[in-house]
Design brief:
single chain, about 350 residues, Alpha-Beta Plaits
């Protein structure tokens, strides 16, 4: 059943998308260019004045990778990604970017972050790797973190495929790029895009994610298709996560839990990592499935790429603060917390007394 014309335009041809804006303090900027390297879409450019400049004609979906790479804190957020209306509307407006709330203990008193919390807050997707190979003993430890992830009904639906062979990584890159490029060209054609809409099914809210402006205009249109970055990011090690498609609750949640375990384990071992879901397109090719030892019912759902970083690409940046709905014991019912809570500041006398 075809999508209604209005909904089709909102999904595939949105007109009111603000992709986000960043700004640089040119006085602070030292011209190191790390923000240029760490921008997925190369929105930053080096000027003749040896300072970086923001290209407003390129997409930016407010990932803030440029901020964590800057050694002099010269970059700040001017406006976050925002869509005021239509299918991709952000709720209920441009959401404020907020740093992690200060930790409080069970008595609502100031506290310290645990080591696990600090690791979670600092962890970022690292996409610039050195050529240094990843030792196999460390890869095995990363896999063990995934193998011991909880799964629905203890179904343990994983099959891990480790690829360090440069020729096979290149083949995965090339086939994945070919499929993604074909999809992008279809999206860009007013005639062919109708076929993408027809294939989406009657419930677009659950199947439209691939056409989100951030991914199709930004990640695909400005990074993957023009080959600004290879699909697998030039990483020296790739762990494909295949899952049994019959998994209890579906394979996606199982892969998500295992993969995040693996990324955090990699960080703890001095490695850096990121998720690459695009590789599922290439890994599904018959010639590669045989080479990778994959048979039904196992299909690659996503991958984790591993390596040693070229430069610092991690650190705490602000995230959208979406309103939190509370339904408290003994409360008035639904309470919507629009803004982060302001911590109660006790007087010195009150603290001493307590």
């Amino acid at each position: 059943m075809p999508l209604p014309e209005t909904l089709f335009k909102e999904i595939f041809r949105p007109e009111n998308v603000s992709m986000g804006k960043m700004k640089v303090d040119t006085v602070k900027c030292n011209g190191c260019g790390l923000c240029v390297q760490n921008c997925i879409f190369r929105t930053w450019e080096m000027g003749e004045d040896k300072k970086v400049h923001y290209n407003k004609n390129k997409a930016c979906f407010s990932c803030y990778n440029c901020m964590v790479a800057c050694p002099v804190d010269a970059i700040s957020i001017q406006e976050p990604y925002n869509v005021p209306s239509g299918f991709w509307k952000t709720h209920p407006h441009a959401l404020p970017a907020v740093k992690p709330l200060e930790p409080r203990n069970a008595q609502n008193e100031p506290d310290e972050w645990t080591a696990v919390e600090r690791e979670i807050f600092n962890r970022r997707s690292v996409r610039n790797f050195s050529d240094k190979p990843v030792p196999e003993p460390l890869i095995r430890r990363v896999i063990e973190a995934g193998r011991f992830a909880p799964t629905s009904g203890n179904c343990q639906p994983f099959k891990f495929v480790v690829v360090t062979d440069k020729a096979v990584i290149k083949q995965l890159n090339d086939i994945s790029w070919w499929v993604i490029n074909d999809m992008y060209q279809s999206y860009s054609s007013d005639e062919k895009v109708k076929n993408l809409a027809d294939a989406m099914g009657p419930a677009p809210a659950t199947t439209a994610g691939a056409w989100d402006p951030r991914i199709i205009r930004g990640g695909v249109g400005q990074s993957v298709v023009p080959r600004v970055m290879p699909v697998l990011l030039g990483a020296p090690a790739v762990i494909l996560i295949a899952a049994d498609v019959r998994s209890i609750g579906g394979p996606a949640i199982q892969v998500g839990i295992a993969g995040e375990n693996m990324v955090l384990a990699a960080n703890s071992l001095g490695l850096k990592a990121t998720w690459v879901g695009f590789v599922a397109y290439g890994a599904g090719a018959p010639q590669l499935r045989a080479k990778l030892g994959l048979e039904d019912p196992f299909w690659v759902s996503s991958s984790i790429v591993l390596g040693y970083p070229k430069f610092r690409q991690e650190g705490i940046v602000a995230r959208e603060y979406r309103p939190i709905n509370w339904v408290r014991e003994g409360g008035p019912g639904l309470e919507i917390e629009e803004k982060p809570p302001v911590p109660e500041v006790k007087s010195k006398r009150a603290v001493k007394k307590a």
